[in-house]
Design brief:
This is MerC domain-containing protein. The chain is an all-alpha fold. The protein is built from five helices and no strands. The chain has one domain.
């Protein structure tokens, strides 16, 4: 078993989890900061935290998608994940200063959901490709 076989499902699951973290961060953190005014929560509202999540989402998405596409050659999955990443990065780059707070939140949730859908498709398609390859080798 090669390293790519191991990395692809981890990358998909990581990207899905990080996309969910973006949504939680975007929707729940402001409420938590109001309810639990603590200096430990302030680090999560820092711009560096946003950038860190985006970089991690991009790296895990790129890794899982590159390995997955080599297996299944489904360009539609590339479109799903790429569209989600573009929306998520647009929300982060344009921010609430240009878009407004609600538009930023909507774009973040939409981008994260599209990324998650794309990675679920990538994961399932790779599992199917692996089963077919295993069946054919027997």
């Amino acid at each position: 078993m090669n390293i790519a076989h191991f990395l692809q499902p981890i990358g998909d699951k990581t990207a899905i989890g990080l996309s969910f973290l973006c949504v939680v961060h975007c929707l729940i953190l402001p409420l938590l900061l109001i309810l639990v005014p603590s200096s430990t929560l302030q680090m999560f509202s820092d711009e560096g935290f946003h950038q860190g999540i985006l970089i991690a989402v991009f790296i895990s998405s790129f890794t899982a998608l590159t390995i997955g596409f080599k297996k299944h050659k489904q360009i539609s999955i590339v479109y799903w994940i790429s569209a989600g990443l573009m929306i998520l990065f647009s929300a982060a780059l344009l921010g609430h200063d240009l878009l407004g707070e609600y538009a930023e939140k909507i774009l973040t949730v939409l981008g994260a959901a599209i990324i998650a859908i794309g990675h679920i498709k990538n994961y399932k398609t790779c599992c199917h490709s692996d089963r077919l390859a295993q069946r054919d080798s027997q």
